[in-house]
Amino acid sequence: MKKILLPFVLFCLTLHISAQEQSFVLPYETQDYNVTLTYEQIIQYCHLVDSLFDEVQYFTFGKSAQGSDLPYLLIDNRTKNNNKITLWIQAGIHPGEPEGVEAGFLFIRDVLTYPSLKPLLDKVRIVFIPSFNVDGLKRFGPYNRINQNGPEQMGWRTTAQNLNLNRDFMKADAPEMQAWLKLYNSINPDFLIDCHTTDGADYVYPLTYGLDAFQTLDSSIASWCTGSYVPFVTDQMDRAGFPIYPYVAFRQWHNPKSGLLSYASRPMLSHGYTLLTDRPCLLIETHMLKPYKIRVDATQRMLLFTFQYLAENADAYSAMLEKADRDRVLDDFIKRPFPISLTTSMNDSVLVEFNGMKYDTIKSKTTGGIYYKYDNTKPEIWKIQMFNKIVVDDSISLPIAYVVPVEWITVIDRLQLHGISIIRTADDKEVKCTASRLSGVSFPAMSYEGCFRPDFTISEFDTIMVIPRNSALVTVKQSKIKVLVWLLDARSEDSFLKWGFFNTIFEQKEYGEMYVLEPLADEMFKKDKALKAEFEALKKNDPGFAASQWAQMNWIYNHTAWRDQKMNVYPVVKITDRNEYLKLLPSK
Q1: What pLDDT score was predicted for residue 256?
Q2: Whole-prediction pTM value?
Q3: Architecture of domain 57-327
């Protein structure tokens, strides 16, 4: 056994730790199962577990926006096994939903003290992040989750910068996420679990789960998820008294009669992001109205059964992941249509039985609208439609490479944070490429996660342009192919373009004076009758345009040779010809 750190000797004694069992007790267990650890206590317990068990090592993987350590534990018996897989468990991405903290520590204690579980570390190592959003956790208080039944106090949903980390996996604005990406890419875990608490309707299930196994994920791994893993954990959880169900979302917000809906998760979310490297991520959503103890127990069991199943199937699972990694860089994969958008078909559904609660539809005295009131003493089986067929809504043909011009350094740096390989161009080179013009550009009235996300229509065109020296040539044939395409392609909802990294391209910087444009307009309309007709149609059909002399003359300006040729043109271009690609490679 490791020597116990002196600052923690008294702390350990107060917990009555048994030298024989090497156990520890959480405040949760001594305070009526309705408290969660503070940030300071989490750090103490990380040190404690590290001091008690040879298999545990405590590390930090970066700093929060406020400068606090981001902790994680590595649980590994360090036996030599080339097929050992890594189970990554994270809690506290939303600190108001803290079940994963207690469940994670209790799970680790079970693994290290139960004779039947400890040998499974020969097959599976564990990474445990007990608090991802540490600044949110430090905003500790009793009023952070109005819809939730305990614990007595908890953290706040967002970071100190008011960013939701579970919307940040692609854009990686938060320093916490940037640190996470570095750790994730250095460890390359094989199966991930992200622990949450849900909101919404009342029902019997103490835990619902998300595990996307749709077209984004390798088909063999998707089949393993739906055909092997899910049936196993569903059966085990049911036997343990914790029935589970796929993540609950209604077609109409909060309306059970509207039917259940499955959807493909975008990679801005944890359980959408890992699919881009063909790694499943289990989203745990415990039911917010259940007592905290039930939620913690359900989460702990889900962790345990997943760990057991991975250990029992480690060799076959490792082989499947290795094959997916090989297949992802084959020409056969690159030449296939690449699904860039998935949607739920509203033309296909199945009738399912769902263990809900009796509810009444009540008219609100406050708003005059309706709401649903549940009676949790009266469970009942709902027979409702489930819309669970996911279809490809949009697909693209992949280029040989994307090019990010050198001036967009923030984008280039973020690509590398994601573990994407780039090649720096050595000289200014003129190449044939495919660019994207964006029209009908509009912006929302408010930002989302600190970003003003543009909407637009895309039209691609072939062009010849000079690629500046030191630009980033991003070859698609690499392990992170799915990640880079989702980040760089204009059609992706989670591209840097959609997250506002290129918003300055939509800003007009030069204008024409009226006295210059007025005679020019007369000359243009005489030469081009179609242009005149288009202008008159706009005046007739668009009241705002008809009422604004400036808008009309600026329209004229933007149809002259003096207009900004780069405005509304996406700077990231595609290289589709191999000879043009070779031009951009540095000389050997």
Answers
A1: 86
A2: 0.94
A3: 3-Layer(aba) Sandwich (3.40)
